[in-house]
Amino acid sequence: ATAQIGVTGLAVMGRNLARNFARRGYTVAVHNRSYAKTASLVADHGTEGTFVASESMADFVASLAVPRKVVIMVKAGGPTDAVIAELVPLLAAGDIVIDAGNAHFPDTIRREAELAAHGLHFVGTGVSGGEEGALNGPSIMPGGSPESYAVLGPILESIAAQVDGVPCCTYVGANGAGHFVKMVHNGIEYADMQLIAEAYDLLRLGLGATAAQISEIFAQWNTGDLESFLIEISADVLAHTDPVTGAAFVDVVLDQAEQKGTGRWTVQNALDLGVPITGIAEATFARALSGSVPQRAAAVGVLPAHAAAWDIAPEDRAAFIEDVRLALYASKVVAYSQGFDQIAAASAEFGWDVDRGAMARIWRGGCIIRARFLNRITEAYERDAHLPLLLADAYFTGVMDDGVGAWRRIVAAAALHGVPTPGFSSSLSYYDGVRAERLPAALIQAQRDFFGAHTYRRVDRAGTFHTEWTGDRSETAL
Ligand code: NDP
Fold first, then answer.
1. Where are the alpha helices (DSSP H) in 208-290?
2. What is the interface pTM, i.e. ipTM, of the complex?
3. Is the dihedral of CA 336, 339, 345, 350 positive or negative?
4. Where are the alpha helices (DSSP H) in 316-393?
5. Do residues 320 and 207 lie in contact, with contact meaning Cβ atoms separated by under 8 Å?
6. Which of 8, 68, 162, 367 is most buried (most C-beta within 10 Å)?
7. Is 82 in the pocket of ligand 1 (CB under 6 A)?
8. Is 143 helix (H, G, I), strand (E, B) or coil?
9. Considering only CA atoms, which of 357, 20, 312 is closest in space to residue 161?
10. Is any ligand 1 atom within 6 A of the Cβ of residue 36?
């Protein structure tokens, strides 16, 4: 038994993770349900490090040094449970099972409890960065027991992306915390992508800019506050020419965005917790709208627009581009602020004690939402670990001070010209809602008391009240 770590499940992600471990000098036990993938990993990459290949799960487990550390990287859901069921009888108390797939966090909570009953550590781990990240350094979000992190953490930190010498991996919290944070990461990714797409659409329609011109604008933005992997690849995609038609590649792609479900999970959980993550929700629904084929077919050319034609004078084009940039940055800050609110709410609900500043820090490299401005989030939580609203941190109020005027102009222009901007618009509504001294929720609560005797509280007196709406309209203190 010599292997320091094992990986079972050797499709693209597991294969690359195993190679990453091996390249860092670990002896890696490798296993896959069907042996072909194991054999090809060793045949293609055996020279990159030391692999111990096994055909059976029993041999695989036997090849691991104690306490055994087994990374499961298989299809999320039933397959993960199947692999766990096969592993458990082969393991001993103190061994560590790591699920690095995209598990739904309630499954992770359940599995952690089941394995803890066997004396095993179960580490549900978010891994972001796709196959490239898995090979060269992903962002890693491990949950589970602090004891398991003490053993496993250094290994994971050594294969994670590094930014300024700091690994993009840290202990997140008990049981499902790691997969939860990975889920919210993906939700934020949905929002980020939607906002970039809206900026692209506004530049396309407002200025009549070509994909190549917008690519240049994005490349320029990527040198400032918006610097991020997603802006960078968007510039790349927009610069790409379709080899078949010679047209801009983006113009030949069908305009229907798909999803694997993590955005949906994020929104479902936010509804459960009562956290308004409007940016992520709108981004998820925008993908759903793009795929609403019969509805779109019924609407195109039928629904009246009464939208103004764009007419931006040449001398105003630069100002429009800057307005779009500021609106994008402000909307992005809102989406992150909402996502971090959701992490705080779940952390309180499940007792995870997640350090939000540390989450922003481990997202700076390796993962899809890696971005310069994540440093700003870490700094904000360093100033106040219990910050109730990220937006209210001094740096971000400064961002809003600079950008909110532009943001209003862009959302108003989009509405007047009939351009859908669910991300920009809903984020601005959230912003105005959360900063409002008084909301029309007062009327809603009064309506609820009227039809359902749901009671209300008053601004001027403590207690709970009900008005006899159908009687003499007298008020009762309850
Ligand atoms: P897949 O999700 O395509 O899963 C294929 C692997 O699962 C194969 O090794 C397959 O074995 C194994 N498998 C499927 N069913 C079973 C079963 N019943 N018992 C045992 N093994 C089974 O692989 P990926 O590499 O794309 O992804 C692995 C995990 O990583 C997934 O959870 C996925 O969601 C996540 N992922 C994460 C990404 C990220 O950026 N973090 C990106 C992509 C994926 P066999 O070869 O025998 O069929």
1. 211-221, 229-239, 249-252, 262-273, 278-290
2. 0.97
3. negative
4. 317-350, 356-362, 374-383
5. yes
6. 367
7. yes
8. strand
9. 20
10. no
Amino acid symbol at 241: T
pTM of whole model > 0.90? yes
Residues assigned a catalytic role: 182, 189
Give yes or no for residue 135 CB within 6 A of ligand 1: no
Element (H, E) at 41: helix 35-45
CA dihedral 16, 20, 23, 25 (to 10 degrees): -130
Summarize pLDDT for 9-65 with one digit per residue, the tens. Answer: 999 999 999 999 999 999 999 999 999 999 999 999 999 999 999 999 999 999 999
What's the rounded Cα separation, in Å, for the pair 319 and 406? 9
190 in a known ligand binding site: yes
Residue identified by tokens 């909307």 is 331
The residues near 343 (Cβ < 8 Å, ≥ 6 apart) are: 180, 181, 184, 354, 356, 359
- Which residue's CA is minimally distant from atom 34 of ligand 1? 102
112: helix, strand or coil: helix
Q: Ligand 1 centre and the CA of 143: distance in Å? A: 20
Ligand 1 mean position to 12 CA, how many Å?
A: 8
